[in-house]
Every structure is written in structure tokens, then in C-alpha cells.
């Protein structure tokens, strides 16, 4: 599935979407980040795990998002036990060097565990089904007391890159005061695991059908980031989580442009080579 080459829509103005007062000046340098679209099958079709971020957070406060966050320098640790497509494969899909590709995959696994309790790790033959023994390690990861590589080594676990799929590449608009260069991944909830809200970054979490999440946004119950809105629109076309993961993706680097339009913000999407 290819993203539209140009797509324009309006969203209500929200404190989580900032536009710099000095937007004509040099833009803030974006930080590398990873986001994971976590899917599961339900009776009415696939559902996606969403978090309502705590208001007042520096980035996307009060908005509904997928789990994710910035890359930690320790995510590039090459000692991490790894199963699945190697960093070179991810580097080709995300158009980056192998070091960054490794860090992005590790950040995706780490952030998913920190923010939802879902652990994309195990052995080369099996995925962890019970994450209860790693509850304290999860807290230590979130507080940055330990690294992902250190946690996996101590637990005797292997990172399962084969559970992830490359999905998209978004760069925060130049107009934003805080910016990220974010690779989006997709993954299916492993059997036996459950996603939860035990994170300091969200005051509510839950599984929703993509169409229901968009309806909440349209009716003012939630506010979506532009990439989240468009991703949910795309996911609404699939009848199973597996079908969504199996669909080939063209990874196009996209940076929206934000324009104030009365009480709304106009979002203009167009691929970028910047």
C-alpha cells in the first residue's frame, strides 16, 4: 500500500501540536525515534493499541498516539542477542546506516516494553508468553537505570526483530518546537501477552478498531497526531492484523507542513527528500 503523494486535512488546534512563534527561523534538528503500531485480532476486525498521553508532556501532551519514543544511545549496542532480519536489512528499508537501523529496532522493542508491557523477545524458537518475571526490569528500563542490551543479556533473552515490520517514516514538521525523525514499525501482539497502561507517560490506554479511534477524533473525544490519523485510516482497510502486516509497504519519508487556519491547523502531507 502506498501513501498518497499529497494529502490535505484539517485538525482542531491543540496544545499538543505546537507551532513555533519564530517559524521563519531555522528549524529544530529532529531526534531519531521509533514508534510501534501494535495490532491484535478481534471479532470485528483488527484493533490497535493506543495511549492517551499525559497532558503537560513536552511532546504530544494530551494526544492519542502509538507507543514509541526517542532513540537512546545505548540502543546501538551491538552485543544484543538478535533474531530475524539483520540491521543491514532494516537499514535498506529505512534508508539509513546499519548503526542507526540497529538502534531503531532496539528502541522499538524497548519502547514497546516500557510503554505497553509487550515484550518482543524470547528465544530463536519461541516468544516470551509471561512477562511477569520482568516487571522490575521494565521499570528500570523506563527510568534508564539499565539498557535494553543489558536487560536481555541478564534475562537470557533474544531480541525478535522478525516480529516487527517496517511501516512508515515521518519527520515532525519544521514548524514544531520539538521534532523527531521517526521510523514506524508494526507488530502483532504475541500469544499470551497483554498490553497495559503501566507507564508514566499515559493516563489512559486501550485497544480500538481504527475506525472507532478516528470517530473519537472527529467527534472531539480524542486528538490524533497527523501520522496517527493517516495510519489508522490505512489500517481500517484490513480484515485481520496478519493481513496488515503482510501488505508490502513503500517507506516514503514524509514531513507534514502545518498552517494555522482560524481555530484549526491545516496539515499538508507531501514526501520529502530533506
Automatic annotation (TrEMBL):
Keywords for the protein's UniProt record, in alphabetical order: Hydrolase, Magnesium, Manganese, Metal-binding
CDD domains according to UniProt: NUDIX_AcylCoAdiphos_Nudt19
Cofactor: Mn(2+); Mg(2+)
Keyword Transferase in annotation: no
Coiled-coil ranges (or none): none
Start and end residues of each Nudix hydrolase domain: 29-230
Protein name per its UniProtKB record: NUDIX domain-containing protein
